[in-house]
């Protein structure tokens, strides 16, 4: 088994990196893949909360790197999916506790044991970001259809090119088709026009995402939600399947009342 | 190893330390150098280092690995000097300088088939946010220039793509400098000492040229100049 290392990065904070890592990992694991996600946001960890595994943390990433435990001991097994593991970040340390070569070493050790390693990058383009991309085979750049988020994504894509970690694949999160239709939000085309990279996912705005995150029950487990489906589609595309992009237009209320799907 | 460590020369320069690595395989050199640093960590800690790698051809992975190893040891790598074009490009990609205050003596080469005209820097785009190109002469960009990118030329700037970043032509005061682009919509346009922002555009975009006319920045469609 040789794992693929996928890092999710964005530059700007709050665009949904951590939520996406949790959901993509869950989606992959629900398809029978063996997945480990790593929280790279040392000092501001969140991934454990979104996965609902906060109260099971004993050892963390920094413990592994500093040799206080074995890799296996820091891998928390998910309650719902037996093939999903989390290596949480340390909360009482900061980004300097880990170096890019530590991450490469750790991932090389993990590669033999799983199919996928999904790394959650912190916001920013400093040490934490460098750590998160050091071992990556593939980087997903996350953005929202907002000018400031797209600018930051552009910067990150440039940095990835310079580090020869490109070409990046783009995920557009929190797209509201109704707002796009009214001309109040950047469309997928607007974003792609500027960033000029491959698109791997479009996730519609969905309030259930917040509810699910608060409960620690990732949405990708829920077959009905559009956002959950979008994450499942990203997982399938990562696995090499050709999946057409969802028709988000049909989600509007009027058509739903008319009984169209 | 004793042999390789003699291939590492350390010299103090105005901007920190200049370290010359050469005459052996790169992997050995890098390992020997890092070992050397570890042995004398108190001397190296906090140092600003310029590396002269001679003819070694380095790819991003090799150079960034060494940079990361050094930064873990409290050493800031700020410049890489090389005789190899590949290595220079790599260093530039990683945002490292390729010249220190005293430039290395250039090899004098007779160029016979040079076209007449001023020097221009050729940049392959897209130039993304945070990217910056500065050149004493003209600049040609093949691709888009995104918002947040910056181009500064002492001469003119031509963008074969959409220009949406900040551009400064005639940066040293040349008011004959021009800026042209397939779509001219810069965040800010400067020629010599004049500054303007792009007006909100409607309708289809077309290639345009901007220049200084009686001290005013003006932009006009490219067609007008061809007399059609």
Strand content of chain A: 15-25%
Radius of gyration of chain A: 18 Å
Detail the poorly predicted runs of chain B. none
Structural class of chain B: alpha/beta
- Give the helices and strands of chain A as they follow along the chain: EHEHHHEEHEHEHEHHEHHH
In the sheet with the most strands of chain B, the strands line up as 5-7-9-11-14-15
Return Rg of chain B in Å.
22 Å
Q: Report the helical percentage of chain B.
A: 10-25%
Give the percentage of residues in beta strands of chain B.
25-35%
Give the tags:
heterodimer, A: 261 residues, alpha/beta, Rossmann fold, eight-stranded mixed beta sheet, 8 strands, globular, B: 228 residues, Transcription Regulator spoIIAA, Pectate Lyase C-like, 2 domains, six-stranded mixed beta sheet, five-stranded mixed beta sheet, 6 helices, 34% strand
Characterise the protein shown here:
The complex is a heterodimer of chains A (261) and B (228). Chain A has 261 residues and is α/β, with parallel strands linked by helices. Chain A has a single domain (4-257), classed as Rossmann fold. Chain A is 39% helix and 16% strand. Chain A contains 12 helices and 8 strands. Chain A has helices at residues 17-30, 47-50, 61-65, 71-74, 100-111, 127-134, 147-162, 177-182, 188-195, 208-215, 226-238, 253-257, and strands at residues 4-9, 35-39, 76-77, 84-87, 116-120, 138-143, 169-175, 198-204. In chain A, strands 3-4-2-5-1-6-7-8 form an 8-stranded mixed beta sheet, with helices on both faces. In chain A, α7 (147-162) links the parallel β6 and β7. The longest helix of chain A is centred in the middle third of the chain and has 16 residues, at 147-162. Chain A is globular and about 55 Å long. With 228 residues, chain B is α/β, with parallel strands linked by helices. Chain B has helices spanning 2-5, 26-39, 41-44, 60-72, 85-93, 223-226; strands at residues 8-13, 16-21, 48-52, 76-81, 120-124, 132-135, 138-142, 150-153, 157-163, 166-169, 179-184, 188-191, 194-196, 208-213, 216-221. Chain B has a 6-stranded mixed beta sheet. A 5-stranded mixed beta sheet of chain B has the order 6-8-10-12-13, with no helix packed on it. A 4-stranded mixed beta sheet of chain B has the order 1-2-3-4. The mean pLDDT of chain B is 84. The chains are: A alpha/beta (261), B alpha/beta (228). Chain A binds chain B through residues 99-101, 130, 134, 151-152, 154-155, 157-159, 161-164, 194, 196, and chain B through 59-61, 64-65, 68-69, 71-72, 93-95, 126, 128-131, 144, 146-148, 164.
